[in-house]
Amino acid sequence: EALAVDAFEAVVRCFGNLTFLYSIAGRLRDLLEIAAEGAKTCQRFGPLLLVASTLVENWVYALVATGRWDEAEELAAELLQQWAAEGMALALHLELAQIAAARGDGASFERQISIIERFARPDDPYALHDVTSARAENLLWQGDADEAYRIARESLGHLADQQDAGLVVSMCSLALRAHADLVTARADRVIR
Predict the structure, then answer these.
(1) What CA–CA distance (Å, rounded) separates 107 from 112?
(2) CB atoms < 10 A from the CB of 9, how many?
(3) Going by fewer Cβ within 10 Å, which terminus of the chain is more open, N or C?
(4) Are 95 and 61 in contact (CB under 8 A)?
(5) Contact 117, 131 (CB under 8 A)
(6) Cα 68 to Cα 99: distance, rounded to the nearest angstrom
C-alpha cells in the first residue's frame, strides 16, 4: 500500500523495519534481498544513508555477517560518499573496522577506529560498547586475549548501570571469550 501511494515515510519505514526484523531473525539472505529492493525504491527520495539509514545499516551488517566483505566495503564507501552523517558514519566505520580485524589488517583497523573516535561520544553507552567490542575483537584476532579481557571488563564497569541489558550481556560474552582464550592458552602451555 505504501508503494502504491508513494508515501515516502511509510515506504522507508517498511523497508527499514523489514531489514531489522530479518536481522533479528537471522534471515540474512532475505535481508539482503529486501535491502537491495529497498535501496532501489528509496534512493529516489535522496541519499540512502540519510533517508533509509536503518535499511543500509542492516544491509552492510548482513554483507559483513555473510562474509561478503568486499561488497560491504564497496557499499559502505559508496554510502559515505553520499552522506557523511555522524551517527551512520559511526555504524559504517564500525563494520569496516570489523572487516579489517577479521582480515588481520591492523593498519586499516586503526584507521577506521581513529575515524570512529572523532564521532563517538565518550558518554554514549552504545558507542562505548561498539568501539570496545571492535577493539576486543581485533585483539582476540591478534591473539592478545589479556588486553581484550582487560578492556571488556573495564567497559563493564561503565555499562553496569545500563537499562539496556543487551549491552552488558554482549560485553560479558566478549569478556568470557577472552577469558576462555586465556585459559586455553595456559592449558596448552601446561600440556606441552
Answers:
(1) 9
(2) 10
(3) C
(4) yes
(5) yes
(6) 10
Alpha-carbon span 111 to 97, nearest angstrom: 8
3-state secondary structure 20-53: HHHHHHCCHHHHHHHHHHHHHHHHHHCCHHHHCH
Nearest to 25 by CA among 62, 60, 52, 51: 62
Supply the pLDDT for residue 119.
80
Nearest to 53 by CA among 27, 26, 80: 80
581513529: which residue's cell? 114
Q: Which parts of the chain sit beneath pLDDT 70? A: 1-7, 83-87, 188-192
Q: In whole angstroms, what is the distance from residue 85 CA to residue 187 CA?
A: 47
Q: Quick check: 175 and 156 in contact, CB under 8 A?
A: yes
CB 181 within 8 A of CB 165: no
Could you count the other beta carbons within 10 Å of the beta carbon of residue 98?
A: 23
